[in-house]
Amino acid sequence: MTVSAILHYPDATLLKHSKPVKSINDDIQALIDTMFETMYQAPGIGLAAPQIGTLLRVVVIDISENKDAPLCLINPEITHLEGEADYEEGCLSVPGIYETVTRAERVSVIAQDRSGQSVKLEADGLLAICIQHEIDHLNGKLFVDYLSAMKRQRIRKKLLKQSRQTM
Ligand code: NI
């Protein structure tokens, strides 16, 4: 079991585009295990590989109350977005900050699971929000990017101050 450090905004790695996974080998399996461990320990309901410094298109999610419904999406792609929903979001890379973001209410996604099988998923509610949030991470986008520049700047300053205080 390995738990990794989670990068915090405005770390430059979080703003980079992640590369597709070409082969789901032992290294990728180990990465997925580390991501689940890190997410559960944090605790959070979703984590994307770039948040632990690995620029690969892998996300893990578990929105269940008992933390017993792990979902791993490799190379996920949204194929359909529908409706609109406001949700107060947080992010393990933006600790202590919660802001309302408007996203699609329903999504369809294609991806590979950790055994390499192609999966198609239709989601609504919290899962739909979480999937969109995590896929954004793979494209170097954070939920703070949906906020006004002024709000984002305030969050940036606050987190930089925190990181200086909590070495
Ligand atoms: Ni996040």
Description:
- A five-stranded antiparallel sheet has the order 1-2-3-6-7. Strands 4-5 form a two-stranded antiparallel ribbon.
- It has a single domain, classed as Peptide deformylase (Peptide Deformylase, Alpha-Beta Complex), CATH 3.90.45.10.
- It has three helices and seven strands, in the order H-E-E-E-E-E-E-E-H-H.
- The chain is globular.
- It starts with 25 loop residues before the first helix and ends with a helix.
- It is of the alpha+beta class.
- Residues 91-93, 133, 137 line the site of nickel (II) ion (NI).
Features:
single chain; 167 residues; alpha+beta; Peptide Deformylase; five-stranded antiparallel β-sheet; two-stranded antiparallel ribbon; 3 helices; 7 strands; binds nickel (II) ion
Number of strands: 7
Ions, cofactors and other bound molecules: nickel (II) ion
CATH H-level name... which superfamily? Answer: Peptide deformylase
Q: DSSP strand (E) fraction?
A: 25-35%
Helix content: 25-40%
Name the strands of the widest sheet in spatial order: 1-2-3-6-7
Return Rg in Å.
15 Å
Major sheet, described briefly? 5 strands, antiparallel
Can you identify the CATH class?
Alpha Beta
Domain tally: 1
Report, as a whole number of angstroms, the end-to-end distance.
24 Å
Question: How many separate helices?
Answer: 3
Q: What is the CATH architecture descriptor?
A: Alpha-Beta Complex
